[in-house]
Amino acid sequence: MKIRLNKLSVMLCAALLSGSALAADDDLDEFRTKLGNEWVQVKNDRLHNMKTFVKQEDGKRFRSFKVEAVFDGTIESLMRVVLDFDHYGRWSWNVIESKMLKKVSPTEYIIYVVHDSPYGVPDRDIVLRMTIEPQTPSKNYVQFRFNALPDYIPEKPPYVRMLAEDMVARFTPMGNNKFLVTNEGYVDPGGKMAPWAINFVSRNAPYITLLGMRRQMAQDDYVNDKKPLPFYVNNNP
């Protein structure tokens, strides 16, 4: 029997039991308004210099998300975090397992991730193709693309295979040991899950993940790692 609980799981479970839980939270007002194809800001965290947005694109079951943040530190440290496939659970939202399935090239990887779902909902797993677009003389940002590969390996019950966790993450140097992070994407958990629940997760998970990423990249293991990266990185704007 599943016994893992976390703060977000408890919030979702409580909301399922009582419709008043959403109404009591002024921070969820956007769930009571109709979204369109334009980004709507839902959070402006001035303390962490981070903003989040959502929109409802035509033909998609759930809302798309975007998050923007300014990080202190080097892009190299963050790249080492993203390429440390076995330890996504240290920083990414509700990850309980992660590993690389295949290295296609120095800039393309196939990875496997398991997410802890809210209490009472089966955990989700997903296979992702991660492709990296390094900086060039005419393009001074590193860009990562994540695309779901639902049929890459057989399903692994009791996990429910996610249909999408598609994202484009961009890291742009700003000078003075700072860089801009933007991450835009869409998640479809597959199986059965209340639309408001997955919308709530897609609204909060990117924000929580970037906070974790910022904390992780400051760890000595990543800051002091001198092994060369598999692609060129420039911290100067």
From TrEMBL:
Residues 1-23 form the signal peptide. The keyword Mitochondrion does not apply. Residues 39-202 form the START domain. This is START domain-containing protein. It comes from Fluviicoccus keumensis. It comes from the Bacteria. GO terms for molecular function: lipid binding. Keywords: Signal.
